[in-house]
Amino acid sequence: MSQQPQLTTASGIPVSDNQNSLSAGPRGPLLLQDFHLIEKLQHFNRERIPERVVHAKGSGAYGTFTVTHDITQYTKAKLFNQIGKQTETFVRFSTVGGERGSADTERDPRGFAIRFYTEEGNWDLVGNNTPMFFIKDPIKFPDFVHTQKRCPRTNLKSATMMFDFWSKAPESLHQVTMLFSDRGTPDGYRHMDGFGSHTYSLINGKGERVYVKWHLKTQQGIKNLSAADAVRLAGQDPDYAQRDLVNAIDQGEFPRWDVKVQIATEQELDAWSARTGWNPFDLTKVWPHADFPLRAVGVLELNRNPVNYHAEVEQVAFSPANAVPGMGYSPDKMLQGRMFAYHDAQLYRVGTNHQHLPVNAPRCPFHNQQRDGAMAIHNGGDAPNYDTVNAGGHGNTGMGHGEGPLALHGAAGRYDGRGQEDDYTQAGNLFRLMTAAEKQNLFANLARPLSQVSDDIIQRQLGHFDKADAAYGAGVRAALKVLGKNVD
């Protein structure tokens, strides 16, 4: 490749670091003053009109969340305040990298986004069908997604682009292993698990915070498509998952998921991190169940199909920043980036007042001083469009989130832990959990696209497999030889 010119912002200002966001301490959170990150994400959100930049192909349905177990010691959120209580929900499933016309059965993570229409406002749990992700810093998200899209020269999907990125980003290995396993092509949306993926927090009535991971375990059982069946269905029925979901609900076969959590205090996470060397807020990692067991919370059921796909599924606008009192965030850098990027994307894609649309509007009363702009359906009438300042101080009203301050650690800077962090153990653990047949499928699924890329990329990627588990690298080498690619 030719020498790349100096990277700059759109205003021509040289970029000193395009690998690491500016954070308060090595674990974050991120700082709004990082203009390069903000500009990069804002431009990325505006690259496509009008479909979503990612998660463009999707399906959705309404349902209910029912509380089955008491977690009020951890959160004051009112949707959990009584066993048996039900909250209306809307769920959107999706593929990630493809366009709106792409096939439902492509090898791709699946989005699993849930809106809870609570009495205190909308809570959006925006996750995937995997508990981890490819990268740990949002400044690399536009770069990563570009590799999953189309080559700017050929307008074709490119295995070279994908593996060039992954082979230089060993942090991606955990998710790459999941993606090319059998779970990379789930059999529709009903037969897969869901995850909040990020670390979030819960706040109780005393203002005490614990950290939480959300899990949704399908009651229908896990089912996956073979690589051959996924390709066949992509040609015969590219809307396979959409059809399956709509038909199941129309026939009264309502899909359900058990909602569970992993919970840990900051002190417990500090001790675990000291023992393992893993950052508990790193999205490329998971919290092992042996260390943080799952606890039951409730059941999610989908029982009503939308009346109009565009008005409801296409225009639904999620954001992980939507957290009701009793719910909170964490220093997870990817979560911090998504809290900005999702809302910004909806402002661009749907409009300034997208929250006024029925699928996005809260089911509880709401009031703010936001006025005017496109689609101002609820424009405040003759109510004041400003809030006065209380010269005597605001004081504590007891309303809202009411969470205590979050301690920050370290000086503001761009922290690069690559090269010192363990990107291999958890990927190896996932590999070792697979059956012999699942491992063979993994090897074959990886070998097909790897056989299309240059030898230097193959060798870099094989090196990562070797570090995760020697049998992992050996298996992929053997599968490549079957395809006529000798990599010894």
SS strand fraction: 15-25%
Summing up helix and strand content along with how strands pair, one would put the structural category as alpha+beta
* CATH homology superfamily name of the largest domain: Catalase core domain
How many domain modules?
2
- List low-confidence stretches: none
CATH fold-level topology of the largest domain: Catalase HpII,  Chain A, domain 1
So how many helices?
A: 13
Q: Give the name of the CATH architecture of the largest domain.
A: Beta Barrel
Radius of gyration: 23 Å
Distance between the termini: 25 Å
Write the layout of secondary structure elements.
Blueprint: E1 22-24, H1 35-45, E2 58-67, E3 86-95, E4 110-118, E5 121-128, H2 141-148, H3 159-167, H4 173-179, E6 194-195, E7 200-203, E8 209-218, H5 227-236, H6 240-250, E9 256-264, H7 266-276, E10 295-304, H8 309-314, E11 327-328, H9 333-349, E12 412-414, H10 425-433, H11 436-450, H12 455-468, H13 470-482
Antiparallel strand pairs: 1-12, 2-3, 2-10, 3-4, 4-5, 6-8, 7-8, 7-11, 8-9, 9-10
Helix pairs in contact: 3-12, 4-10, 11-13, 12-13
